[in-house]
Amino acid sequence: MNIYRIFSIIVISLLFMNGLMNAQPIYKFAVIGDFGDDNQAEADVASLVNSWNVSFILTVGDNFYGATDGNYSASWNALDDEVGKYYHDWIQPYLGTYGSGSSDINRFFPALGNHDWYHLDSSKVYEDYFDLTPYNTTSGNERYYDFVWENVHFYVLSTYGNGLTEYSFPRHNNYGEPDGVVQNSKQAQWLKTQLENSDPSHWNIVITHQPPYSSSSQHGSEPAVQWPYKDWGTDLVLCGHDHTYERLNSNGLTYIVNGLGGESIYQFGSPVSQSEFRYNSNYGAMLFEVYTDSINFKFISRTGLLVDDYTLTKFVSNTDKQDLGSINGFYLAPNYPNPFNPSTKIRYSISGAPNNSARQPVSLKVFDILGIEVATLVDEQQSPGNYEVEFNLGKNTNQAGNSLTYKKLTSGIYFYRLVVGKFIQTRKMVLIK
């Protein structure tokens, strides 16, 4: 082995260990807030989000603004007009009138905002319209819940209720979260317990409609929800309520206010001490790209303007853990061994749609650092289940007897990608010769 090859291997290994060449995110998701008004701004933001090819959409509340207080049927129809009309392709099951809904699994995760509470005559219409029962196994209700998608654990809270600054407003105090919204509430203790018991290799993202900190002149910071999120193990807090975009930092924890989904735009007052970045010139949404040890998020306006671009990093000491499971049973495991020569094994799991065990088209391919395909390991219809394939440079043919063309691959970083319908996951591996 010559000196150049030894040097190349050292450099590649260092880049791999430090994540500097993680060109492909594990997945992407979008975040919208304060959007449900069935207007041109909401339509523009929805069109933007639908163009991103994300795995799912998360909301930070106020999905609905239609004033149909006390009328269940009118509230349902208005909710469909203000959410289903624009985002039905992400909802499963979808019971509205604008389409068939998501073709496989639910990909729309809403949070309750104050308008969802008092315009929908409590949370009943919301809970009937969105089927969140698969995610309430720890909370026992659909108002606040949690779910895991790949390596991120999401905790969606219901933060409108008694104890808030605005709860004394006229007619608002007829509704609200029965499990409380202050730090010693049942809901807060649920969050604390879930965070303390979370997988240490997972990111923990908390969603709360009311912002703990905000520079808006409309609502501003809400002391009642200034819980010790960081001490409990939170990595990021996403909020809405104020119709602005603001990135803040309190005691080393990042908070985001993202309320420019389409309803209206608020003005800023004097910046709070935690504020790092503010924007309120146009509507837009957030695009997240998730990696093993970092998360990049951007706020992009409805015109396509990149407004904010920020990356959070996290030391993950257990990235090869086999139970970094994804929601609904889809998962691509880290290959083993890694680095490898001449062979490595790749495991993956696929599941069917609810009550459906039909075979699905499955693709598992390997790409080089330039994105050029170098191997197809799987390209066939498969039933739901667990699978394992071998990527072996020492073989002349694959299991089907077809000739292999990747025996002459050089040392370096490669990516392997699993595609099952809308589910896409990519991981990286290192070949050292």
Describe this structure in words.
The chain is α+β, with helices and mostly antiparallel strands and 433 residues long. It has two domains: 27-313, Metallo-dependent phosphatases (Purple Acid Phosphatase, chain A, domain 2), CATH 3.60.21.10; 330-431, Macroglobulin (MG2) domain (Immunoglobulin-like, Sandwich), CATH 2.60.40.1930. The protein is built from seven helices and 20 strands.
Number of domains: 2
Work out the radius of gyration: 23 Å
- Proportion of helical residues: 10-25%
- State the oligomer: single chain
CATH architecture of the largest domain: 4-Layer Sandwich
Average predicted confidence as pLDDT? 85
Question: Beta-sheet strand percentage?
Answer: 25-35%
Count of beta strands: 20
Name the descriptors.
globular, single chain, 2 domains, 433 residues, Immunoglobulin-like, alpha+beta, 20 strands
Provide the fold topology:
Elements: H1 3-18, E1 27-32, H2 40-50, E2 56-59, H3 72-87, E3 108-109, H4 114-119, H5 124-129, E4 145-149, E5 152-156, H6 186-196, E6 203-208, H7 229-232, E7 236-239, E8 245-250, E9 253-258, E10 275-279, E11 284-290, E12 294-301, E13 306-313, E14 331-332, E15 343-350, E16 360-367, E17 373-382, E18 385-392, E19 412-420, E20 423-431
Parallel strand pairs: 1-2, 2-3, 5-6, 6-7, 7-9
Antiparallel strand pairs: 1-11, 4-5, 8-9, 8-10, 11-12, 12-13, 14-15, 15-18, 16-17, 16-19, 19-20
